Amino acid sequence: MPRQERAIQTRRIILETAAEMFDQLGYDATTIGGLIDRTRLTRGGLYFHFTSKEELARAVLDEAVTMEGLAPQTFKLQEWVDLALLLAHRLPREPLLSASIRLSVDVKARGMFGTRWPDWIAVGQDLLTAARERGELLVHVDPQETARMFVAAWTGIQLVTETLPDGDLSTEVSGFLRLTLPNIARPGVLAKLDTSPTRAAHLLAPEAGSPATGRP
């Protein structure tokens, strides 16, 4: 394996392992010593990529805003829905995403590094603004307000769901979308939106194309 490729791979292993520890243990209880034990790297090998726990936390948060699986749809509102469903599907499977929320709700870490919630609000606002310009939203809907409220609600759903023994984030987010979309989407658009909890898995499947309408 070429040296540069090996370095990229090692950096990724460190970052993902740190994310697992932040997610499982919290920011304070995560230590460089523990990370070295888990990755089996030397201290010098780790410090070549990351010089401190603080730098690792910032790197994890930098990975938080991700559009993987999102594809153009007939309705911009479907893209907004898809993003919520994709994150619900991916978060339990990807420690980097889960750790970004754990760091964001940790009072100490939040005070040091901030959060990526403003970035998520901006992404949602852009999609909802495009949907409004296409006539997909009810006239009273404000994209910025809706994006802020939805990020707050999505985060709350995630935090509650992970404490439930039978909680499934995709199912919960799908249900929340079904409750809220009638107050956001025009009836003709609403009828064509797909909010099913399995939609994200379809979008992420290697053979998945880009559905021309809301429904796959």
What structural keywords apply?
single chain; 216 residues; mainly alpha; Arc Repressor Mutant, subunit A
Major sheet size, sense and barrel closure: none
How large is the count of helical segments? 12
- The span between the termini is 40 Å
Give the fraction of residues assigned to helices: 55-70%
CA radius of gyration: 19 Å
Q: Which parts are unreliable, with pLDDT below 50 for 5 consecutive residues or more?
A: none
Number of domains: 2
Report the mean per-residue pLDDT as an integer.
Answer: 92
Report the order of strands and helices. Answer: HHHHHHHHHHHH
Strand residue percentage: under 5%
Structural class: mainly alpha
Q: How many beta-strand elements?
A: 0
* Shape designation: elongated
How would you characterize the overall build of this protein?
- InterPro entries: ArpA-like, DNA-bd_HTH_TetR-type_CS, Homeodomain-like_sf, HTH_TetR, Tet_transcr_reg_TetR-rel_C_sf.
- With 216 residues, the protein is mainly alpha-helical.
- The protein contains twelve helices and no strands.
- The protein folds into two domains: 3-62, Arc Repressor Mutant, subunit A (Orthogonal Bundle), CATH 1.10.10.60; 76-204, no CATH class.
- It starts with a helix and ends in a 12-residue tail after the last helix.
Could you write a compact summary of the structure shown?
Keywords: DNA-binding, Transcription, Transcription regulation. By secondary structure, the chain is an all-alpha fold. It is built from 12 helices and no strands.
